[in-house]
Design goal:
The complex is a heterodimer of chains A (245) and B (269).
Chain A: E1 3-14, E2 17-28, E3 32-37, H1 43-50, E4 58-63, E5 66-67, H2 75-80, E6 82-85, H3 97-108, H4 113-126, H5 142-155, E7 160-164, H6 172-187, E8 192-195, H7 199-205, E9 208-213, E10 216-221, H8 223-227, H9 233-244
Parallel strand pairs in A: 3-8, 3-9, 6-7, 7-8
Antiparallel strand pairs in A: 1-2, 1-4, 4-5, 9-10
Helix pairs in contact in A: 3-4, 3-5, 4-5, 5-6
Chain B: H1 5-49, H2 59-80, H3 84-99, H4 105-130, H5 134-142, H6 147-177, H7 189-200, H8 203-233, H9 257-264
The chains are: A alpha/beta (245), B mainly alpha (269).
Amino acid sequence: MDGILKINHLSKSFGTHVVLKDVNFSVNKGDVTCIIGASGSGKSTLLRCINLLETPTAGEILFHEKNILDKSVDVNHYRAQTGMVFQSFNLFNNMTVLKNCTVGPVKVLKNDKKEAQERAMHFLTKVGMAPYINAKPGQLSGGQKQRVAIAKALTMNPEVLLFDEPTSALDPQMVGEVLDVMRTLADEGMTMIVVTHEMAFARDVSNKVVFMADGVINAEGSPGEIFSCEDNHTLKEFLSRFRNS
Amino acid sequence: MPDGFSQRIIYIIQNYWLSFLKGAGVTMVIAVISTAFGCLIGFAVGIVQSIPINKNEHIVKRILLKTVRFILGAYVEIFRGTPMMVQSMFIYYGIPLIFGIHLEMWPAALIIVSVNTGAYMAETVRGGILSIDKGQTEGAKAIGMTHFQTMVNVILPQALRNIIPQIGNNLIINIKDTCVLSVIGTIELFYTTKGIAGAYYTYFESFTITMVIYFILTFACSRLLRIWENKLEGAETYDLATTDTLAHTSGLAGIPKNLVEEYDNRESL
């Protein structure tokens, strides 16, 4: 297997509050890893550490065997290769949909503007947002914004795409449209790490599920193993809450 | 000199309109240029003040950044905390003594008002930057933008929209406050009026005219700025982009035609 990302003994604390304790896991090319767990279990922090939006307190993050926490590594160069989709979209409010997608490739990757526009149109078409290229984020619905955000991340041609609860801020009817896009990406072999509360998505789409509780990886395995787990009390209790609802 | 109040005003205008115009011109030139320079100073200081100091950064860089910040902070506090009239005297008579150069009226006036405005604008810009949602910065960071790129492309354009009222405020304050430059002999509107009033001892009449001129200047500026503000707001609507002419007519500006065709021939998900 082609290893892209390997996380070794990662820890993170805010002051005296320990959020992540000795987290280890790895991601291969084409993997769709879902991180599940209760609120406050550290899953978002883990994802934010991977994109260095939070600086880990200890441990290492190997991207193609290279520790990106090394001072010599250009953080911005690394971030440009790992796309991030946020819960709150974080589209640039001062730019149109098209500009949102092209500003990264043009300013950061120094791509030709035309080429970036072509790529942006390709991905915007893919997420069904091509008709809205002239709209500003404030004029779109939540589901539309999130689809643009996915296209924006894809236009950077990232090697791995990180999703931080991409559907948590959406109405139930908009969740479906975003999940459909993510499902298509997964089918096409995009490497993805998804923090989510959508258990059906985790079960059906991912090939690996990581269950976090109290800042540690409590269990990990194939969706089959995780969702039919019988001997792990914490995991069983967590999953039962979703079954009941 | 005629007898009635209004006749005297007409007399003064007829004889001195050119002086008033010149004075008002000087006032406006100093106010506009200094506000512009002040904004530049403010933006520069605001950007530097908002650079996050990261613990992982090299120690020399951190010390340098902290030193620069301290100096800029001192600049802001000192120039906000002292009267511009005193600053005028200080700079106009101080610079020749310290640097041994003679300062002409124009550069002196522009430096004084710019530096003063800059100190106020620095705080305004910092506030404007803080008012932008943190998610915008994170969104920019996540695609690998540097602090400078994030500022120029994402944060400042949005912050600018929020601080335009304050820029307008500063311009209006500057139009009025240039009159303190009369203490260093700048021949702006106030200084001019004093001369005219003194010639025939018509203080009330002359300053009535000047009041009106000042008001026209500031009122016109505040209206113009409002128009600019609305323009930055952008259109409230947008066009759908497709070559389907029934859907719309003009949404394809700036998009290469082949892309639009590609979109129309797309296979949707």
